[in-house]
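hi support,

uploading two proteins for the ticket. first:
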Amino acid sequence: MAKDPGGKAKRTNYVIHPIPLAETVLDRSAMTYRRNAGQPYATIDYIWYIEGPGEKILVDGGVDAEYLNKERKIPTRQIQTVAEGLKKYGLTPADIDVVIVTHLHHDHIAQAHDFSRARFIVQKAELDFARMPHPTVAPQYPPQYFEGLNFQVVEGDAQIADGLSVISTPGHTAGGQSVAVQTAKGLAVISGLCTIQDNLEPPEPLNKTTPVIPCGVLINLLDAYDSLLKIKQMADIIISLHDARYAQISHIP
């Protein structure tokens, strides 16, 4: 932790920059477990630049619309490329030192090899599962997008830098992790589960009966619920991984 000229400890505060890459319109129930069927909802794929002292840090490895359209047959609109998004902050993919991987699904790692200098922080449970996935979810883990990366493997909650930690939040995947970021306005947590704001802040009247709504795609329903509750209880600022609102926001807070 840095010190001010008077010798007192000075807290490191970060600014989070959402970088929207691609937009996909899904049925809302794909995000909110067994709720809101028949309601279209635009989800956004992001990377997140964590601006602060020291290393250049991103959350997630990115994806592009061409891959989702051609390889996954998911109708998707390109917003910008990884390189275009980073350029707004004076960066190139080669400038990135660290990529924190929330999970190894294809839409969070497909562009990872563009970050040629980076080390990739991943949970051991997630990497082990991705290398030997269950057949029901194996298409979510194309090995060409994550094998050969420079992994830094962690187990459970771990501090990455002063004011920046990863938090174990399984359920959506076997070893998902969220990212806790100290900001000038409190602790922000980027959900490592694929969520929109409804998952962590249920609308009325659902909020009278449940504090969270599990995500629509998951590997363990109970773990997903508990992980969302963990995020909600610790965060001053909740950031849902795919919510469209962040496409219009340049910084948090």
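and the second one:
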Amino acid sequence: MKSLSSLHFPLRAGLHRILGHQAVFVPELGNKVVGYPTWSLSLAQDEKVQTIFPASKGSVASVGKALGNHTTLYKYLNPRLFVILTEAPLVSPTTCGVYLVDSTKGSVVYRASVPATSGICDVKASLTENWLVYHYYEEFAGVGQAKGYRMVSVELYEGSQVDDKTSR
């Protein structure tokens, strides 16, 4: 039952809000497990939650990245991270949001706003270990402007400089 108290999970609470919950064992209710709200993340009124998904699970390949000068960048390995994809259809031009959130505290670790194509948010994303990758289609309205898929890769590391390990 001790591991149960470390279970944190997000749930959608309407179109513009996410509530974080913690699982708690309650003997008074007939030995049931109850999810109690612990934090709330409210989005802008014109921004709607499309989807929520956790990081993919699996073994960690390494805890850091060795650099050429014999220093190390230590990966930010937080198993409680999850991704929120949003859309803001009433904003002109329509935008899509990508959020990376800690399910224990509700803190936003990363946020990006990307343009929607023809008013439709079609962002695809994947999160594994300390690596978030997402892509979307983008058209520019100007003469001679390119259109096509854009891919963004975000790597998260601990500390503010190399060899800075803040946990474990």
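thanks. also noticed: The chain has no helices and twelve strands.
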